[in-house]
Design brief:
Interacts with CYCT1-3. Belongs to the protein kinase superfamily. CMGC Ser/Thr protein kinase family. CDC2/CDKX subfamily. It catalyses: L-threonyl-[protein] + ATP = O-phospho-L-threonyl-[protein] + ADP + H(+); [DNA-directed RNA polymerase] + ATP = phospho-[DNA-directed RNA polymerase] + ADP + H(+); L-seryl-[protein] + ATP = O-phospho-L-seryl-[protein] + ADP + H(+). Keywords: ATP-binding, Kinase, Nucleotide-binding, Phosphoprotein, Serine/threonine-protein kinase, Transferase. The two termini are 31 Å apart. The chain folds into 2 domains: 112 residues, 2-Layer Sandwich (Phosphorylase Kinase, domain 1); 287 residues, Transferase(Phosphotransferase), domain 1. It is of the alpha+beta class and 494 residues long. The radius of gyration is 24 Å and the shape is globular. 45% of the residues are buried. The strands form 3 sheets. Strands 1-5-6-4-3-2 form a 6-stranded mixed sheet. A 3-stranded antiparallel sheet has the order 7-9-10. The protein has a two-stranded antiparallel ribbon with strand order 8-11. It is built from 14 helices and 11 strands. It binds adenosine-5'-triphosphate (ATP). The site of adenosine-5'-triphosphate has 28 residues, from strand 2, strand 3, strand 4, strand 6 and helix 12. The site of adenosine-5'-triphosphate (ATP) has 28 residues, from strand 2, strand 3, strand 4, strand 6 and helix 12.
Length: 494
């Protein structure tokens, strides 16, 4: 593959885009389910080549071809780099409908438009979640180096990724890492008025400037996410697991200290600064909290998790960090262990099944498959003597409801109307339990104040989006670009 030099976009185009049918491929299995499409492992029938097919979800599209797909195709056609996923072609199929059960079990792909990608064995979140997988330091350095190299290529080509997180970093069994999911990416070369939406990037990876309402921003937004991913790799779990935007900011400030004009010149001008600045000064605790990391890792992390985007390290500065040049050095990707394929979709599904099984086992045993007989009690006693099966674990598909928005934060209580909508964005079902970062995309606005996150949902049920800022919430009334009620409007402001 030819790789364009930094600063140059390879505009060479593939000849037959969209001209082939999806019938050239047979489905092997589903490996991903994002907010905007399902991803399948598939085989090209003629050549036997294994590929990943991302079905472009059209069901919610009243306004034509989804903007996220247009973005992804447009940018990926221009970006050619060994650390960026390769979009090979687009194929279409007039095949059977989505809910056709027979089709779901068959190898035939259902009707729709598909993006054909090179296949990658894992995503970083899926791999890290695999029981028994522990990354070594040279391995983490190797992944981080590739991640930064791919991102540096994007940034010098004036592309912001805007959804950096583990599940969008794909790995193959040769140890290669590639950035994927450019559905929220944006070319900032063409954005002259500088008005960008701040409702991008999955909450746990979202930088403070976006949470404070920035509409002018640059590559530093991705670099904050890189800091979160790096710390997560070393820590073994995500480091800033906010449940709502205020809670996320709260967690950031508790770790990185309070922002003020000294450590972040201009911060007081952000739209939400006065609403969210901590009421009392907080100390920066990055070095203290991660004191078990080695000093070079800590140094890099400290520069990535810098509140002021102008002082935060760029991908280039990060690549030059001591961390990558001292022993133990990053390993050769080819020397890395080969793992059984692991995508976040599958690991989550497995966990969900296990949890369901555990819940079932916890339930009181039913006699002859019937509910346990009620104890005969006087009506007045019945009140306090509920049949035990009702006290069992919740079988709500989303598990526990998330904590009320705002949580134990210092922010004023939030407007509670519609406090939680488990089927946000129209996605139902769900992996329950653990908190989950709302997706990079803001959900469709339902006109009420909603918490930012719910537990993660399954195929699409993951689609727990960050909340829309409520127009009546503590965010201090209407703000530019808020109160949008569909995706195309939502992204109207780029
Ligand atoms: N080329 C690929 N090879 C292997 N797996 C892939 C590939 N592309 C995507 N996947 C899997 O599918 C998942 C979802 O893909 P992607 O993020 O592109 O979809 P999306 O609809 O934009 O998702 P999201 O809403 O999570 O951003 C990835 O996390 C990954 O596990």
């Amino acid at each position: 593959m030819t790789t364009a030099a930094f600063g140059q976009i390879n505009t060479e185009e593939l000849p037959t885009w969209g001209s082939r049918s999806a019938d050239c491929f047979e489905k092997i299995k589903q490996i991903g389910a994002g907010m905007y499409g399902q991803v399948f492992k598939a085989r090209e029938i003629r050549t036997g080549e294994i590929v990943a097919l991302k079905r472009i979800r059209m069901d919610n599209e009243k306004e034509g071809f989804p903007i996220t797909a247009i973005r992804e195709i447009k940018l990926l056609k221009k970006l050619h780099h060994e650390n960026i996923i390769k979009l090979k072609e687009i194929v279409t199929s007039a095949g059977p409908e989505k809910n056709d059960q027979e089709n779901q079990d068959s190898k035939k792909l259902e009707g729709g438009i598909y993006m054909v990608f090179e296949y990658m064995d894992h995503d970083l979140t899926g791999l890290a979640d695999r029981p028994g997988v522990r990354f070594s330091i040279p391995q983490i350095k190797c992944y981080m180096k590739q991640l930064l190299t791919g991102l540096h290529y994007c940034h010098v080509n004036q592309v912001l990724h805007r959804d950096m997180k583990g599940s969008n970093l794909l790995l193959d069994n040769e140890g290669k890492l590639k950035l994927a999911d450019f559905g929220l990416a944006k070319s900032f070369a063409t954005n002259h008025d500088g008005q960008l939406t701040n409702r991008v990037i999955t909450l746990w990876y979202r930088p403070p400037e976006l949470l404070l309402g920035a509409t002018k921003y640059g590559p530093a937004v991705d670099m904050w996410s890189v800091g979160c991913i790096f710390a997560e790799l070393l820590n073994g779990s995500p480091i800033l697991q906010g449940r709502t935007e205020p809670d996320q900011l709260n967690k950031i400030f508790e770790l990185c200290g309070s922002p003020d004009e000294n450590n972040w010149p201009g911060v007081s001008k952000y739209y939400f600064y006065n609403n969210f600045k901590p009421p009392r000064p907080l100390k920066r605790r990055v070095r203290e909290r991660f004191r078990r990391f080695d000093c070079h890792a800590l140094d890099l992390l400290d520069h990535l998790l810098t509140l002021d985007p102008n002082q935060r390290w760029s991908a280039k500065q990060a690549l030059d960090a001591e961390y990558f040049w001292v022993d133990p050095l990053p390993c050769d990707p080819k020397s890395l262990p080969k793992y059984e394929s692991s995508h976040e979709f599958e690991t989550k599904k497995r966990k969900q099944e296990q949890r369901q099984l555990e819940e079932q086992n916890k339930r009181p045993r039913l006699q002859h498959g019937r509910l346990p007989p009620y104890q005969h009690t006087e009506p007045h006693q019945m009140k306090d003597t509920q049949p035990s099966f009702s006290a069992g674990p919740s079988h709500h598909p989303y598990g526990k409801h998330p904590a009320p928005p705002g949580g134990p934060s210092m922010y004023p209580p939030r407007n509670q109307s519609g406090a939680y909508n488990p089927s946000r964005g129209g996605h139902v079902g769900g992996y329950s339990g653990e908190p989950y970062p709302p997706q990079g995309r803001a959900p469709q606005y339902n006109g009420s104040s909603m918490p930012a996150s719910g537990p993660r949902g399954p195929p699409g049920g993951y689609g727990v989006g960050p909340p829309n800022y409520s127009q009546t919430s503590q965010y201090g009334g209407p703000a530019p670009g808020r109160g949008l009620n569909n995706r195309s409007q939502q992204y109207g402001r780029q």
